[in-house]
Fold each of these.
Amino acid sequence: MEDQANNTTSSNPKPSETPVLNISGKVETTQKTPRTMGKKKADPPPPTVPETSKINPTTFPVIMGRILLKSNDPPEPVSKMNLSDFKQYLCLLCMDKPSKRKLVSHMFISNEKELDSDFLKVRKIYENRKDLKILEQVTVYTLCARSLFHRVQMKLTDVEWNKQRNIFETDRIGERDVWNVTSRLYDLENEETEKLFNYAKFLSATNS
């Protein structure tokens, strides 16, 4: 009788185990889902990154302009890809106005490829001016020439600007007047570079 009872007990199925809740609150079942016969379903392709978000010689000036100018206006388009087109300069043609003891500076933006031709165009404007004497050409390399251009317009408040704010006059004091103006431009360019470093530090600190 005891053996028969043992046989009866072993033949009965075990009661089902109580379901266990996971941390999400859903019931986990012990039954495994059968595998589907056939080919394994391919993983979805990774999201594509828009071409405009990549950093290259074409997009770099746009990115710099957005950071430094806080603007989405892109620079003027170029006809073809050329690395020298994107090495930007803030340029000054410095002239003497002896009658009023003034130093006149014509400011414009250029790049390595067109630097000589741009200076030539500006020089031709003043070649026949008897009241002006051309002194020097000044070039300041910058990551974003538009941004530095606007910074000069805002920061040089002790000079006399024309209506277009691309030509300014300063009092002519001595032989180092051109050097003094150039030094101020480099100081302003250093401020632009500092803005980029601070922005990079901000992105690093915020894990952006």
Amino acid sequence: MERTSAATASTVTMPLVCLTRVRKSFPLPDGAPLVAVNDVSLAIAAGTAIALTGPSGSGKSTLLHLIGAIERSDGGTIEVGGQEVTGLSGRGLAAYRRRVGFVFQRFHLLPTLTALDNVIAPLIPFRTDFDKVARAHELLATVGLADRAAALPSRLSGGQQQRVAIARALINQPALLLADEPTGNLDSQTGTAIVDLLLRLRDEQGTTVIMATHDTAIAARCDRTVQLRDGCLTS
């Protein structure tokens, strides 16, 4: 299902993400394979917001993990920005993962670090050509938390923690943001605000957003909906 938006209208024809016959299975306790992603081919244009929908167990999270190179596919190819990521290993794999932003349903903030330090955390082992602290402050301002930089996660609401997680995902200025049920632990009003933020990143920064969601109202706000069932594309 496709929708017309300013983002899609201004997008070049070359897809940012291109999957070709991607497959992934996991072994069950009895040794039989559980097919999580089954022969999926998909092209996603740069600067668009895509909703991955489908019932639990349909393969949404696995597909995100494959695109983000958290999991390795069993077959097929995945290209992001013209780079094939399915065969990456070692330093190449680590470098690619740093170029992709991840936002998860469970915020995964480090409880003993402030909001600011949680945003900086992915960059601690690396040298950068920008000021990490200044960039983190800028991102917290972008997500509406400029005044909460010194707060520990325990002093933040669920929506605020998710905003910190989004800021952390953006610290490396990724062109691609993967969000796995980012509103699943939030009330509807806070969830709407988080989706507003993700779509604003698409509109203002050209970030490509791929978001797994059960919420049909959220999916309807994206540029395109991709439906999965039993690991297969149904739309």
Amino acid sequence: MLLAALPSPATARVYGTEQASPFFVALRRRVGTLVGSEYRPGWRRRLRLSAWLLRQGVRAWIRDEDLTALRLPDASLDAVISLDVLEHVPDFRAALRECARVLRPGGVLVLTVPFYEDRVENEQIARLNADGSIEHAGEPEFHGDPISGGVVCFHHFGWALLDDMRAAGLREVQACRVQGVDVALPQGVWVIRAYR
């Protein structure tokens, strides 16, 4: 969906919310410029992950970025891609505003989240307190992560996410069900696409 939304993938400037992954390595070969990042890796982990990237043929130092405060210029990107990250961001609305800010007019945001198609509203299942502690609304939920082993989930998303994206300054927001045994998605996954 990302490549199809880009007028010229070979010259596109794209930001991905992951960097130390096979996905990043594969996408890097398909777009003009790909900038990725990880969230809060310590210097040892950054060194280890940068070494992993080098073994994959990618000469890049692991960037540390906060999706709610990106260090990227306004309107500087053709696309942002975020796969299963937004649910781990305490203030996901700020992250959506940041995505809209860094996209040029006509730029595209493609994201996946655990999407509850039977729910209208989003549900906050954890919150970050001012002192940095996390308060859970029920049983704590952690999702697997190849870097840290488990990351706290703050939100379950329903159809209200599309309204939140519009409120962040995005347009033509669309949730698409992608499914196909031939592409290893027999159960299907929701992919959400929006333009600035």
